[in-house]
Amino acid sequence: MSELHFEEDVILLDLDVEKNEQVLERMGRNLVDLGYVKESFIPAIVEREKEFATGLPTTSVSVAIPHTDSIHVNKKTISIGILNSPVDFVIMGDDSETTPVQIVFMLAMDEAHSQLTLLQDLMKLFQDESFLQQLIVEKDRRNVKQLIENKLNLYSFKGGEL
Fold first, then answer.
1. 118: helix, coil or strand?
2. Where on the tree of life does the source sit, at the highest rank (predicted)?
3. Whose CB among 3, 103, 141, 162 lies 3.0–4.6 Å from 8's, allowing a Cys bridge?
4. Is 101 a member of any domain?
């Protein structure tokens, strides 16, 4: 299992976008520019979101967890995007409804089984409303990184090294 890279440069704050495709393209472009993913990642993640939506309503702050096939990934990471204003994402498992998403957790996993484990951990995280509220008001990428590291068991994705 390769090491998960989670640095401040994959955290994008104050994103001003109008559509979910713009969020996916901005976050995907950042990952391409940083070398985490291949150029093919951007169209692949946009297309996958159309086919298998990832919007998840919560009690207060809706989230999305876009991801795509591992063949588009160079180095495993999770990118966080916090939007100034929510944009609609289709709800996972219900193509007829949308939810206003304000936090995007974009997964770039190089192995399918590690993606499943991280998705399970994220689902637990999304049940913590105070944590999500804390994220949307945070203006410092270092603090967002620390908050995420404290909540997710990133050790298991890094082979026990942090």
1. helix
2. Bacteria
3. 141
4. yes
